[in-house]
Design brief:
three-stranded parallel β-sheet; globular; binds arginine
Length: about 260
Amino acid sequence: MKSVKKLMAAAGLISILLLSACISNEESSGSGEGKLTIGTEATFAPFELMEGDKIVGFDADLLDAIMKEAGLDYEYKNTGWDPMLVGVEDETLQAGMAGITITDERKESYDFSAPYFEATQVIAVPEGSDIQSAEDLSGLKVGVQNGTTGDEAAQKLVGKNSSDLSKYDSSAATMMALQNGDVEAVVTDIAVAQHYVKNNPDANLTLIEDEDNFEKEYYGVLLPKDSEHKEKIDEAIQTIMENGTYEEIYQEWFEGTPDIEALES
Ligand code: ARG
């Protein structure tokens, strides 16, 4: 009799253990997505920059608003540019948020969210430089961030294998090279260049815009192909644009009012 009781007690204990194992299992897989890891290259002020060990900027604020609206938990990580691209492609990262231009070429390997910012390339040069337009770049030492649309635009102007083209891993490194005189011009995104010029008056830089040579670009959240999160993220972007949150964030980092209609069309 005693041993039957013991047996039953043991069976009870085992089933409790099994049940709790099931429950905790369900918690880790059942919470579904878990925490998304989102990469960036955080030397791209005012979109993403490091403040201590925190990534701040327009993208950081916008991403936070998007993810809250979408009900997704996430971690924003300064992976660097190339590791971000590799990570989103092999899905060790679930997204990239780094002022990333939506391009047809990238669309072959990735998905993008709806566009959230309009941009174009611009040339940054020391004050007094004779450069007037993008065509004057050929023959000059030009700095770009490797694998960006600025890199692509510069290649078209100075030639793909030109030794005059210096490629850097981060956005900050290109501006540093310009300031040090390692390059004579930098091709980069307009809002980043404007922010740099404004915040570094001693660098004595001017910007050359050239609508004929530099196309309009739009930033999107970079996602793995067929990402299960795209729909929620797009819906969240739309809500944020409609309810004023986007404009609020925009005004914290930029002057004027955003042209939301241009993004939606
Ligand atoms: N918009 C450009 C591109 O997508 C440059 C982005 C660079 N971003 C950065 N966080 N460094 O190619």
